[in-house]
Here is the input.
Amino acid sequence: GQCAAICPTGAIDIKSDIDAVWDVINDKDKRVMVQVAPAVRVALGERFGIKDNERFNPILVAALRKLGFDEIYDTSFGADLTVIEESNEFIDRLENGGKLPLFSSCCPGWIKYAEDNHPELLENISTCRSPMEMFSSVVKEEAAISDELPDKRTPVVVAIMPCTAKKYEADREEFKINGESRTDYVLTTQELVTMIKQAGIVLASLDPEAPDINYGMYSGAGVIFGVSGGVTEAVIRRLVDKKDAASFTNISFSGVRGLESVKEVEIPYKGRTLKIAMVSGLGNTEKIIKKIESGEAHYDFVEVMACPSGCIGGGGQPRSTRRTLARRSKELYANDKISRIRHSDANPFVGRAYREIIKDDNHRLLHVHYAKED
Ligand code: SF4
Here is the structure.
């Protein structure tokens, strides 16, 4: 990975949370929920020699149950919330003269880089929490306010991420509510591999299982967040009026896909043309920022991922090569294509979360402010 601001690859030891996670799994007073990021799923299959993800994903669910997690969920549910909140913020800034370009905020490697090197851009960065944090925020809030949950034990959220920087994100003060982190532990893809080995689980011997509702349900738009360009594609699906398969196919050919480190698209929106850049790698991001600040380039929206090709190439993943990146990205797009729900608003559990949990409290639960340090 190139999340150099936080994990100069291999140069420092990243704190391992494996022992702590075993402890909570074995604690009978804890209700342990696990959320798995889509980029993790597509890399793990290849690690265990099951390259067909349609077959592998339900086997991974079975493995997580066998490890002892109580409820198996998917970070893509959080990504569906992010798509809605981030596109609302984008539309609001477009229509009310807010700061543009709007930069995406789901990559903590990028946030840290901006804080250290470009504090002048902090107000351009979306206030949206990352999908991981939106997910944890909602499930913990539900535990706090609902009398109807069948499992009333203390909730614990474990997130399995392609990313070492997510460990740091989970601990950030800004994400705490009432002084407590919403995501309790972050394991990398590699750490999950270690746990599966420690438990002696043979994946090929498991029968496929389905994740749990309500938070194991997600749209295809929430899946493609794992690859550079995916956030943009998901947001465009929300901005267009026509939400059918043909319209989504057109968007997929607009230039949002592909493993290039810098991509640009223009999309029509209410009589104007929106210019969007998608960039992966912090060196490439620096070049784009220079162009924006010198006036050489103008964008309305910029999606930034610190790792090459986005989270599929994250620092917590098994080794990434051009070939594995291409395969992982193909799997994510295939996963989207076979989803019955292709855009985030159509996820019925997202609607339910807004009605019953988030209500009008989006700001407290789903957003965050990165303050400039004095
Ligand atoms: Fe983490 Fe993804 Fe950002 Fe890499 S691109 S630092 S894996 S969030």
Summary: Confidence is low (pLDDT under 50) at residues 1-12.
